[in-house]
Amino acid sequence: MLVKTYTAAVQGISATIITIEVSCTKGIQFFLVGLPDNAVRESHERIISALQVNGFKFPRNRIVINMAPADIRKEGSAYDLPLAIGILAAAGEIEMDKKRLEEYLLMGELSLDGSLQPIKGVLPIAIKAREENFTGIILPKQNAHEAAVVNNLNVYGVENITEVIHFFCGKKELEPTIINTRQEFYTRQQLFDNDFSEVRGQENVKRALEIAAAGGHNLIMIGPPGSGKSMLAKRIPSILPPFSLHEALETTKIHSVAGKIEKNTSLLAQRPFRSPHHTISDVAMVGGGGFPQPGEISLAHNGVLFLDELPEFSRNVLEVLRQPLEDRHINISRARFTVDYPASFMLIASMNPCPCGYYNHPERPCLCNAGSVQKYMNRISGPLLDRIDIQIEIVPVPFEKISEQKPSEPSAAIRERVIQAREIQNQRFSGDDHIHCNAQMTSRHLHQYVVPDQDGLKLLKSAMQRLALSARAYDRILKVSRTIADLDQAENIKPYHLAEAINYRNLDRESWGT
Question: Backbone phi, then psi, for 17, in 5-degree steps?
């Protein structure tokens, strides 16, 4: 007898429907074809044990299984459930509703006792199931909340293969998982572990972070050890605009494919904050590998990628960031596959000003040799530094500020100003699908939306000459000044907007580090 069941394979952050064709005839052989990997082939042993423990017999027949389309590699253990149901139905020992089998998508890894284990990539699979007009999807109970985000699709979370067998035999009905996704999503959006009200002093740095959040600008903080660089960076998500449903869905798909979704979680409600260690490899940063996975830059999509101690990262790792910072996506090409992952993130970096960490410190002397400061700075290439809009120095907080009992301005107040500035930008770029914030403006947009008056141009010329700013700083200053004007809700760029933006180009000064 020939029986078909349906499942899916994840490629990048999209899914492809896989048809499992099971033919059961006389004989005692077992064939599994259709480009399965070793994990899929090992399903044979797991299925035999799961069926026997639950009182079912694995058929002693000639079984041929084809996983179509055969040119797509099937990887992982998530095909155990559809394979097991297809084998039982094709053997004919248990009467199953063949028509009902074709209405549902099946996914799940089997334990030896028949229980189902959670799998990766559930959200893109559920979206594909709805697109292909399946009635529902049956999957491990731990993944049910994630799949239930997709509307117009019945999602059944099960704990054991016996429940699935009884469902297709008509002996038992399954209860669909229903959650109020929107209510849960909006409730969790305001829950942050870190808040700017806990930060004493550093008003100039908090102002720079507010500007960066308002315009989506990349930022680097330079300061001695203990000045609060990491502490401030961890609080940036609390002032970023809240997720839209579209952004949350896209980001959740990436984390789902990477297996980063917690159990019984639906949509991600807060923007991601990724902080990889400086020993990370370039493949782990951009993604890829034998079984393609999103890298840190994609896991930070619509959020923040924080690189602490930037010069300590490998040169190769830093250089692979250049293209994603411009294109907002990463294309990974290998001999067997090509995948495309989104990678629109804010780059926040921190570093010491020199190897000993105390160059320009107001109290402690720098112990570095002559020229070592510039050598340390040269670990960061000019093209990468060119993509960082805001560069700000941090000094240690004095005792008087640390001991203050009065709380600082909370993140909620800063976030309101950021949201207002982003609304102005949304209206400004409403006709351009590829531009969403000031940091993404091209030269054409600068000529259209950032036009300094005569006094502003004189100030820019004076700053370029007096501070020996590099030519690459010009466009960055204009972009940041546009964001500062948006925070002021000013239509035109004023000289004081440009003056503040000029102060955020410390590393472009030729005198820095000499």
Answer: -70, 130
Q: What is the pLDDT of residues 293-342, one digit of tens each?
A: 899 999 999 999 999 999 999 999 999 998 898 888 898 887 667 888 99
CA 404 to CA 408: how far, in whole Å? Answer: 9
Q: Give the Cα separation of 36 and 43 in Å (integer).
A: 10
Strands 116-117 and 329-333 come out as unpaired
Q: Which amino acid is at 139?
A: L
Residue 113, beta-bridge partner list: none
Asked whether the beta carbons of 455 and 495 are under 8 A apart, the reply is: yes
In terms of DSSP bridges, do strands 338-342 and 154-158 run parallel, antiparallel, or are they unpaired? unpaired
Per-residue model confidence (pLDDT) at position 332: 84
Please answer whether residues 174 and 158 qualify as being in contact, where contact means their C-beta atoms are separated by less than 8 angstroms: yes
Other beta carbons less than 10 A from residue 267's beta carbon: 21
Q: How much is the pLDDT for 403?
A: 64
147-151, 159-163, 356-360, 386-390: which has the minimum mean pLDDT? 356-360
Q: CA 241 to CA 301: how far, in whole Å?
A: 14
List b or e across 460-499, with b for residues whose CB sees 16 or more CB atoms inside 10 angstroms.
Answer: beebbeebebbeebbbbbbbbbbbbbbbeeeeebbbbbbb
10, β-bridge pairs? 15
Which pair of tokens denotes residue 176? Answer: 């669909």
Q: How far is CA 107 from CA 117, 122, 159, 267, 310, in A?
A: 10, 9, 12, 20, 42
Q: What is the DSSP secondary-structure string of 156-186?
A: EEESBHHHHHHHHTTS-PPPPP---HHHHHH
Half-sphere exposure of 88 (CA within 13 A, CB side): 27
Instruction: Report yes or no: 480 and 389 within 8 Å, Cβ to Cβ.
Output: yes
pLDDT at 199: 85
Q: State percent of the chain over pLDDT 70.
A: 96
Say yes or no to pLDDT of 108 above 80: yes
First to last CA, the chain: 81
